[in-house]
Amino acid sequence: MEKFAERFTRQNEKVFPSPDTAFILGFSVIMLNTDLHNPSIKPERRMTLESFIRNNKGIADGGDLPAEFLTGIFNRIKEMPFSLKEDDEAREKVNKESTSDVFNSLFVFEGPTIFGSSAEEKKREKFRKEREEMMAASEQLFKKRPVDKNYSRKNAYEASNQRNVTDSVSPGDVVKPMFDLTWGPLIGTLSQVLESSTNETSIALCLSGFVYSIRISSHSGMSLARNTFVNSLAKFTTLGSIKEMKSKNIECIRTLLSIAIIDGEYLGESWSPILQCISQLGRLHLFASGLDSEDEFLQADSSHFTKISEAAREMEENNGKAVLAAVNEVLIDKVFSSSVTLSARGVVSFIEQLIAVSEAEISGDTKKGISGVSSSSTATPGNQGKGAGSAHGIDGPRIFSLQRLVEVADYNMNIRPRLTWSQLWENMGNHFAKVGCNENAMVSMFAIDALRQLSFKFLEKPELTDFNFQRLFLKPFLLIMENPGSREDIRELVLRCVDNIIRTLAHNLRSGWKIFFSILMLSSSDPSVKINTLGLAILQRLLDEHLDDLCPQSGNGEGPVTDNGDEPLEVALSSSERSERNANAEDFVGLCRASLSFVQTEESENPLPIGLSMRALCHTACYADLISDKKVLPPVSGCQHSDPAAPGFTYEGLSEEESLAMAIWRPLLDGLASGMCSSASSISGGVGCLVQRGSAIALRAILLRHGKMFSVSQWSAILNYVILPAVQIGAEGDSSPVTKISSESPSVSSLDFVGEPLPLPPPRDDEGLQKFAAMTQSDESAPNRPLGTAELLVEASFADLRHGGDGNLSKAHSLKKNNADRTVHLQPFPDSWIATTAPIALGILSDLMHSKFLPLGNDAREVLWPLVTSQLARWSVGTPQEKLQLETVTDDEYNGDEMIVDIEEWQPCEALVRIGCKEWSRVFRRVLDSVPELDKIEAQAWLETLSSSLSDTLVKNLELEEKIREDIVESKLAALGLQNESPKDSGDGIRSGKDINYLGMLPTLKTRCIASHCLQQYMSTFVNQFAALTAEGEISCILEALNQSAVASSKARKDADLALAFEEAFFDQWGDGVEEVEAALQGTGGGSGHRGSSQIFFLTQEASATKAGILLLSKLYCPQATDEEDEKNDWDAEAFSEPLLMDRIVDVLTEFLESEEKDGLLIDANVWRSVSESGGQVAYYCTSFAGVVLSILEMIHNLDSEKFNRHKGPLYPILCALIRVQSGEIRHLVCDIFRKQVGPMIQVPDWGQRPI
After folding, report:
1. What is the pLDDT of residues 593-631, one digit of tens each?
2. Model pLDDT for residues 149-196, shown as the tens digit of each residue
3. pTM, two decimal places
4. Could you please report the per-residue DSSP string of 751-780?
5. How far apart are CA 236 and CA 197, in angstroms?
6. 480, 498 in Cβ contact below 8 A?
7. Could you say which DSSP state residue 746 is in?
8. Can you say how many angstroms the Cα of residue 1026 is from the centroid of all Cα atoms in its chain?
9. H/E element holding 904?
């Protein structure tokens, strides 16, 4: 039947969801055919259509088959039964005999018929014959005749008549009514005689009466009578009480055993007293053999159990010897071995009662069913040790029936059809699981060991494709692990059993893998570190030694392939191959989830050791290598994106082929993303967020090593569902003090402790990496298999992380050495995700952009680049207000009502802004490095995209900055009762100034200012490449944004109302009341020095914008020799940049001189930190623009003589004025310019590097 189900499903894939359905329905059809067409079944008791449909509910993998489908089967079977050839021949023979009888009746004429006898005479004759037949049948059924020596000479007519009557009349129909009336007085008579008589003949007759009565009642379906007779006979064994056994008691035992062997098929519930008697026989046999009971061995704490007296023990020993002499143990064994002959219904009853007796044994109350009195109810101090009665006390736990249950399972395992066995095992497995969690250690350990032995035997037979018998059989192990009441030693024993089975029978495991993976997942959440460690060790051994068993088709290279030699063609796969491939993919997903369960993603009372989580992360890289090497293939059908726990879970928005491919990638990527944004604390040795950083490193390694396998659509799904959500969740979930830190100036960061992104990893064949791999393989605990490319990268990265390396994995082998010095960089905020993990996580985008996205061409630029820049902009730009307002909401959400709704909006802190801006520069550098390798059209498209993205981000930030500034000023004036000269239009849905807390918005304004400064400052890192490659349009776009930033910041630094708000915020930060602010401001002559001044922020922003513009123009005006390629110079960059550059140079230097003369005495980068001793004003402009001036002077110094001569008119007087500034660095640079540029004009020789 299993083979039929497998073959049918393979050839009819769309009929049933699995072979299990065909298997069960096949049996159901056979039962229906028998039920409908068996002549011994009465018509009123035959199966109906409703019963047939009800019996087949839930067989389609938990669902129902269509009612019309089952109705068609029922009607066809009812109209046209099927039978074997032998049945057809027998039926044909009966028909021939019937035809012959009819023929004879037609042609054998009787006298009365010829002469026209009346109809009344025919009727009377017919009645007479029928009466004779009934009398003959009654004589045969109810009258026991002695043996007739002349029986053989009886006429053929009588014999034929007897056969026909017995075939047509069921004996049970005649016997049952009579026995129903007589069994009550009968049992009373037999019991009375058996109780009082000592005559062997009388006893034998009584026991025969019991046997026949039990047989009649069993075969007639009279359960009450049967149970009464069996219970009465069981009591006569005296096994339920402590009293001396007589010969008749022993004969009762023998009779009871013979009934169990001969009539066991019909005993049903009556098995219970029989099995309880056998349980007590086992106990007596221990006494008779000179062994004590197993009670004390199994009792962990026997203080609450009642002990029998010495006299009672002696009596038990004597009884045991008498029983042992009279009852052979083989007879007892035969009761259980004969279970193989029972029908499916009979063996179910037998096992149910055996389980009930086993439960009673383990609970210590095994005699109640025999004596009728519970052990515990009679256990009183006054009757302990007496030699009669049932006061035997409370027994300890016993495992006799549990042992017998194991034997029965062993006998029936390979005899029964798998379907029948599954039904039997469901009851047995639940019992084993329950006993496995028993408080008694010896009992529970025996149950688990029995499960292990049975599992070994069951798994010796391979499982056919698409069946789930292994999963059902191994489920008790999972139930024990899931039970919250199970002890640690028991859970450890379960894991040891799992490990043992995997080591020995991994090659035969199919659906059983699911149970094992679930068990290993539970071990990861166990409160015991010992269980955690053992679970991961099993997974590690599975990876190292049994991967071929888990992935049986791995690496065989067989089967048809596509034209490019990649995957086997789906259309070329047979049905069984498709099913096997889907099953293998599902098992692989289970393995991935088992490993990822050891990566702690949430806070827990029992946190996992960090080392286990890091080792589990290494597993993920190994799994990625398996997918890349085609050792694990994706499923061929069944992808879905609604249920994460169901097979085939994949991403939305992909083609069918892409979805199937991502079904085996998604658990890995999602698990690593969860680890990357984990909220669990993972600090070791002062180094924090190890799990979060380790997850980011593993995800980065996998994507960099195997990213070539993904299409643009798949990359889009990975960004949208994996990387970007994880990065944002990690940032928003950080509540450490890092999010509150604010710098006093954009140019001087208070966040120097924030980590750095990782450098690009070395290539696969890097010599340093290969040395590291060789050292890793040389360890005694190293696996025999070689490390995959991603696994090697993760192992090297973790070694670098453990030893405080700099990220250069080419040197990781030096850290692997035993005597390598470990450098630990203690972090001030080890629990901060932003300070430790954010740079690595966001850096993944730059690495992917360079190595994976650019080769994908135009699709990557149009699809992936917007996703990358949106995240960078979210961290570096953010939103202008603490709340956004929606004027109108949709019908679906608010039933079409128009309303304004305030929505809380997340704001990036300064640390994220600085990280995001730095990542902008890394992305630009990586892309610009790759542009020369692209064709001209693609390169130009990328340059346009880069310039547009950068300028749009900067302009957006400036708009938000301007909006916040205006809100602050308006709110400040509104608070003072004044009105702004250019009030806002209040009809645009924006809140009024009175509703805005301007002091609370100042940190957001400062952050926006820092964002502008950082974006402009980091342009210097790629300005050389950008200027050399871009055209006039892209340059103009960037210059316009920079000019807009300079103008906006200049306007802001001159805003007196904004300056007052900054001053007020400064005093408010130090705890002064608002009423004291004006007095404090007046005391400082209208200014409080430099601390908290708006000029510091906006002058720094203006300076960085100016410097970035001048650097860009200077690179265009004075290109390097390597950049002067004809193919790049398709526009006149020098003519474009010359007027713009000179105008900006003159403006900056002129204002610098004016500020230095008016406000400043010193030009020092840190002068803003303290007010000058003379009490004068700090030179804010000079301090902020000193770096810009130095850049300008260096550019002038590097001009060729021809270009300097063209602009010496406006430059010369400014250079002369710069000689007197109070900056030695500026004066020395001006001196160098005079020496190089002016000296040759006035024919002054170079007088060397003499100090001025």
Report:
1. 999 999 999 888 888 999 999 999 999 999 999 999 999
2. 443 434 444 444 444 444 455 666 778 888 888 999 999 999 999 989
3. 0.79
4. -TTS--PPPPPPPTT-HHHHHHHHHHHTST
5. 12
6. no
7. T
8. 45
9. strand 901-904
